[in-house]
Amino acid sequence: MRMLIVGGGGREHALAWKIAQSPRVTALFTAPGNPGIARHAVCVPLTADALDGLVAFARRERIDLTVVGPEAPLVAGLADRLLDAGLAVFGPIAPAAAIEGSKAFAKDLMARNAIPTARFATFADPARARGYCREVGPPLVVKADGLAGGKGAIVCRTLADADEAVAECMERAAFGAAGATVVVEEFLSGEEVSFFALANGADALPLAAAQDHKTVFDGDQGPNTGGMGAYSPVASFDAAMERRVMDTIVRPTIAALAKDGAPYRGVLYVGLMLTAEGPKVIEFNCRFGDPECQALVVRVPGDLVPLLVAAAHGGPWPEVGPWPTRASVCVVLASGGYPGKYGTGAAIEGVESAETAPGVTVFHAGTALRDGRLVTAGGRVLGVTAVAGDLATAIARAYGAVGAIRFEGMHYRRDIGRRRPA
After folding, report:
1. Which fold has domain 119-186?
2. What is the reported pLDDT for 421?
């Protein structure tokens, strides 16, 4: 197979690392890729939003399967464009990707199909949104309707916080057009889990769960980020919970989208809160999480490519062996100032040394080569990932490898995998 991965972050490096191991793959390209991905694939100078260029490249290079990493090109219709060109794609068409592209769409879908989620209402008028905040009462959550880079969900502990969140989204347009409409919902208490399943348009296959660490500082303090680390598996998400989530959330969601004429093919990310009443959906994403993907791929048994092919073509699922009991941890190393303003171009040292440790892989997220030197080129720079027979050993391996890496302003959480359930 000739394959193309769209994207250039840590998630895409993890996918390239895993896909390159498949004996089925004869050529692997990424657009645009990064210096880490370049070890496994040919990097193509096309950005993830260059839809015309990506389709033209896939046609010219006779790509058998395109795997789309980020959400934005899926919401913009890249899968639709590839399918129209007669090309196979792993990733949902735009009407199905709206499950992430519009919080209002996703909440309406859940409400119409009795899929468990928080009580909510959707508003295009800030005064009405503030009124509903008073009806729900704090704590509550204000969410920008559209894509906001993982930062559009604002937890409000007081009504003053809620008023400020509404103003930030709707009046000051902090998230641009994405915040013109907001969803206001009740705050859910419990343990948060990211669960991933593959879908082929009609059926779904469970993968695994991971737990993300969103806030920038230890102890879940500070502003939200794109994700500062993740680990897998999650002890509270056992086989019985997986069956419950598949039966009450994942399969009904896939069936509802198909019924509405938007069959979902790709990976479905289900952001869950394990509440006292049972699992409830916080949000859906139409792609692998980042950094959860890094923690997942090092645990995936066997060859991932046949699963991607089955999802893309709507075929039957190949037989999958049992997931290994080993645990994995990904620690994100970020640029100074992230998730606020940060500089780039700082020299990175120690990556090769870090990867000599057993079970350690360093996935590149925001890196570039300048005059032959590896430098920082983003807010989240590297994902130091370790796998071991148990979580404690994986944590120790990951942080041991982190200690070998240096760049100016580098910061990271020191409690990944050590979170205590709420």
Report:
1. Dna Ligase; domain 1 (3.30.1490)
2. 43
Lowest-pLDDT range of 15-19, 122-126, 416-420 = 416-420
Q: Nearest 5 degrees, angle CA 234-CA 240-CA 241?
A: 50
**Whole-angstrom Cα distance, residue 266 to residue 253?**
13
- In sequence order, what are the beta bridge partners of 193? 272
Fold of 327-402: Glycinamide Ribonucleotide Synthetase; Chain A, domain 4 (3.90.600)
pLDDT for 265 equals 98
Residue 419 has a pLDDT of 65
Q: Which two tokens stand for residue 193?
A: 């889990």
- 388 pLDDT exceeds 70? yes
Q: Mapped to the 3 state alphabet, what secondary structure does the chain carry? A: CEEEEEECCHHHHHHHHHHCCCCCCCEEEEEECCCCHHHCCEECCCCCCCHHHHHHHHHHCCCCEEEECCHHHHHCCHHHHHHHCCCCEECCCHHHHHHHHCHHHHHHHHHHCCCCECCEEEECCHHHHHHHHHHHCCCEEEEECCCCCCCCEEEECCHHHHHHHHHHHHHCCCCHHHHCCEEEEECCCCEEEEEEEEEECCCEEEEEEEEECCEEECCCEEEECCCCEEEECCCCCCHHHHHHHHHHHHHHHHHHHHHCCCCCEEEEEEEEEEECCEEEEEEEECCCCCCHHHHHHCCCCCCCHHHHHHHHHCCCCCCCCCCCCCEEEEEEEECCCCCCCCCCCCECECHHHHCCCCCEEEEECCEEEECCEEEECCCEEEEEEEEECCHHHHHHHHHHHHCCCECCCCECCCCCCCCCCC
Q: What's the topology of domain 2-95?
A: Rossmann fold (3.40.50)
Mean pLDDT value of segment 213-238: 94
Domain at 191-313: CATH architecture: 2-Layer Sandwich (3.30)
State pLDDT tens for residues 150-208: 778 999 999 999 999 999 999 999 999 999 999 999 999 999 999 999 999 999 999 99
pLDDT at residue number 415: 96
According to CATH, where is 3.90.600.10 located in the chain? Answer: 327-402
